[in-house]
Amino acid sequence: MTEPSSAAASRNSPARNRQILIVYTIAIFVSALLLFSVQPLFTKMVLPRLGGSPAVWSVAMVFFQSLLLAGYAYAHGLSRFADRRVPVVVHLLLLVCALLTLPLAIATGWGTPPSSGYELWLLGLFAVSIGLPFFALAANNPLLQAWFVRTGHPDGRDPYFLYAASNIGSFLALLSYPVLLEPLLTLRLQNLVWTAGYGVLILLIAGCGVLLLRAPATAAAELIADGTDAPSPSWLTVGRWVFLAAVPSGLLIAVTAHISTDVAAAPLLWVLPLSLYLLTWVLVFQSRPLLPHRWMLALQPVAIAVIIVLLAYSASEHNLLLTLGGHLVCFFIIAMACHGELARTRPPARYLTGFYVALSFGGMVGGLFAGLLAPYTFSWIAEYPILLALAVLCRPQMPERVPQWSLRIWLLIAALAVVLITSAFTTGKLHDWFMTNRVLVIGDVAAFAAVIALVLRAGPAKLLATVALALLLIRLYPADDGRVETVRSFFGVHKIQVTSDGRFHVLLHGTTIHGAERVMNDDGTPVTGRPEPISYYYKDGGIGQAITAIRERKGGPIRAAVIGLGSGTLTCAAAPDEHWRFFEIDQSMIDTARDPKYFRFVSTCAPDLQPVVGDARLTFAHEPDGTYDLIIVDAYSSDAIPIHLATREAMAIYRAKLAPQGAVLMHVSNRHLELASVAVGIADANGLKSWVASQDAGRDAEYIFATSVVISAREAADIGRLAGNDDWTLTAPRAGDRVWTDDYSNVLGAVWRRLRDGED
User: Fold this and answer.
1) Which residues contact residue 756 at a Cβ distance below 8 angstroms, ignoring those fewer than 6 apart?
2) How confident is the model at residue 225 (pLDDT cuts 50, 70, 90)?
3) What separation in angstroms does the CA of 626 have from each of 546, 560, 725?
4) Which of 118, 279, 431, 645 is the most buried (most CB within 10 A)?
5) What integer pLDDT is reported at residue 56 of this predicted model?
């Protein structure tokens, strides 16, 4: 093929330019749509392998960001070929090869995770399963923009508006998945639709290639020559691009971890920060930004100060919408300021692909820090305040308004640091006053940072020192009621709290209590002997009644399986000569339950306990059939549930393991999802009848809580006296409700039912 060179063909016609703009915009939009819809789609396929842990999403984000870098680097290298045919042919061949690996599936040999090193195992699983198609998709955005420049289109001088089109596609893909795709389509059908979309995209990119090859070479050369006078970006500039991309990328994962752990572990929360993150890219690369960059720079110190106050106040804050909204709005402002700086300093079109490589490298660095390094390094979500402080350095260097005050400001910051830090390690009236007024003190320091940034236009170094001091004070003057220790693993952050009166030890995941033990009597004497099950497991509650009823029905010792160890409370529900087997995925949870410093249930009632470690959906399937009189499913981590333990196929496994008159008891207490109807539906699909009980003893002060449970059995006689108990209601599946399966679940529907019906 030869490129036209006649004078008459040296320019595209207006009709051809419209055609180029339409085809390229649609191709970039569809590519982004597929790129961001495959992320929740395939992650959902992988989740059952590791207990539905939210950390799977964090590792998935690291993988996607890393492969995005590889795709951008590939696009950068391919765009350097002078012959326009080379990148078109090579990329189309890559896309076709990737199409041959579809539809998506978990690669053979990756079915069972190892006992440790989950992160590396997950990265390997993603790489061999979807690495090639995702890599090809990742390259499309910068590659197609580079092609667009070479078509000679007049807008090729500044093609960054196409990046906004790409992020609109990403934004819509992300929002449509939980709202439309997940509730309406099975996982298999989602996969097929996505594969068909991949085929359509190949045709669109082939069309882009044809338009490129038919475009006049001279017109493209003139456009590219427009930027030849601009010097190539220095290494310092590239390094700043990397930093500006890394901070919001890391903050994305950090703020998601924080709101899921310390605010509310509600389902689908990860959608909100990621949606805002993508929206910032859309807004900053508009030709006429809807939110001017100078506004975002002015608001950034205020946003940082607000987050500091929220972090200081979080332990006592009960207004979920205010707290959640505050973190998300402030994250949006900070990301807008960082990404706005990237848009402001973007290079001419000839350096476009290199610019995108720097952006993707920064995104990967931020993701690696927040998603992989931080969980191994810190026992709490320390990456959030660290990245918050680093966000200060994303501000451009500007001359200070009153430079002669510079030394005075540094002395004031140093004096504040000495007084406030020293007082934290002393006792006396000053320390007590600071503890009583901790939010006010921390808020004043944060406000001081905002004031010197906006009024005096203080440099980033002064602002960083002040913000770091405010964040340090949050740790030095903690707000927790009583002593708190944290344990962090791949599966989340667990808190072990000693109440302020010393009477209870409490296990929390996020803001949800998962167990408690009374360690001190009302008169101040230590509790001795066998610990009493409390929280959701007290003897008169739904779980306690079910255990007693099955034991009475059998007339002797029972064999029980418990999925989820928690604080180990149910080890003390076992009677002598009974065989109870526990299944737990999180080794750190096992270690916590065994340590009598935290809880005495296991050390007192089952000192030789050897739980089966691993995802119960996989490990429990290896148990012999017809074994258990009672199976208790109590594995929900905070309020983010492992869906694969509540499907028709999961219930089929439980049913197969039941003794002839056995029963399955599912603990479905949840603040954000209505799960009783889900349990009833999957039981009915397996030929089991279900009874639902929701009880509230009104004894929260004693750490005895409202409990909702569903017990399922073949016949009413199998559950003994519960069948005639008024607290237990025989419940049929709701008309029109779709049964959850390994191929279909509707978390949004469960959220809606909880909002509609309220808590039990």
Assistant:
1) none
2) low
3) 19, 12, 27
4) 645
5) 77
Say yes or no to pLDDT of 46 above 80: yes
CA 707 to each of CA 260, 540, 699: distance values in angstroms, whole numbers, following the listed order: 22, 11, 12
Look at residue 489 and give its three-state secondary structure: strand
Task: Give per-residue pLDDT as tens, 573-610.
Answer: 999 899 999 999 889 999 999 999 999 999 999 999 99
Neighbour tally for 318: CB within 10 Å: 7
1-15, 537-551, 708-722: segment of lowest average pLDDT? 1-15
Please say whether the dihedral angle defined by the alpha carbons of residues 451, 452, 455 and 458, taken in this order, is positive or negative.
negative
- What is the pLDDT at residue 226? 56
What distance in Å separates the CA atoms of residue 177 and residue 718, rounded to the nearest whole number?
A: 41
The H or E element that residue 562 is part of is strand 559-563
Closest C-alpha among 249, 253, 266 to residue 375: 253
Q: What is the arithmetic mean of pLDDT over 405-414?
A: 91
Query: Is residue 316's pLDDT more than 80?
Result: no
- Tell which residue, 225, 169, 145, 161, has the closest CA to residue 38: 169
Q: Give the 3-state secondary structure of residue 578.
A: coil
Of residues 696 and 711, more confidence is placed in 711
pTM (2 d.p.): 0.82
Rounded Cα–Cα distance for residues 80 and 74 (Å): 10
230 contacts: CB under 8 Å, gap ≥ 6: 347, 348, 350, 351
Place 5 in a pLDDT band, splitting at 50, 70 and 90: very low
Here the tokens at position 333 are 């402002």
Q: What is the pLDDT of residue 229?
A: 63
Structure tokens at 36: 């961001």
Between CA 212 and CA 222, with CA 216 as vertex, the angle to 5 degrees is 105
Nearest to 710 by CA among 642, 639, 646: 646
- Side chain identity at residue 411, one-letter code: L
For residue 571, give both structure tokens: 């080890």
Q: What is the pLDDT of residue 482?
A: 60
- Which residues are paired to 689 by β-bridges? 713
pLDDT band (50, 70, 90) for residue 239: very high
What count of residues does the chain have?
A: 760
Element (H, E) at 35: helix 14-46
Considering the chain, what is the average pLDDT of its residues? 88
Number of H helices, E strands in the chain: 26, 12
**Using CA atoms, how far apart are residues 144 and 131, in angstroms rounded to an integer?**
20
Phi, psi of 712 (to 5 degrees): -125, 135
**pLDDT in the model for residue 601:** 97
**How confident is residue 222, by pLDDT bands cut at 50, 70 and 90?**
low
Which of these, 388, 195, 164, 143, lies nearest to 289 by C-alpha position?
164
**DSSP H or E stretch at residue 730:** strand 729-731
Q: Are 11 and 219 contacting, i.e. CB atoms less than 8 angstroms apart?
A: yes
Cα distance between residue 96 and residue 86, in whole Å? 16
- How many CB atoms lie under 10 A from the CB of residue 539? 13
Token pair recorded at residue 11: 């320019």
Q: Where are the alpha helices (DSSP H) in 631-730?
A: 648-657, 676-684
d(CA 232, CA 502): 64
Beta pairing partners, 562: 582, 632
pLDDT of the residue at 438: 87
- Alpha carbon distance 463, 301 (integer Å): 9
Quote the pLDDT of residue 2: 46
Interior CA angle at 163 toward 162 and 169, to 5°? 90
Residues 6 or more apart in contact with residue 566 via CB below 8 angstroms: 507, 514, 515, 589, 593, 634
Quote the tokens at residue 691: 């009874």
pLDDT (mean) for 332-346: 95
**Helix (H), strand (E), coil (C) string for 183-199:** HHCCHHHHHHHHHHHHH
List phi, psi (to 5°) of 379: -90, 0
Give the torsion sign (CA, 318, 319, 324, 329).
Answer: negative
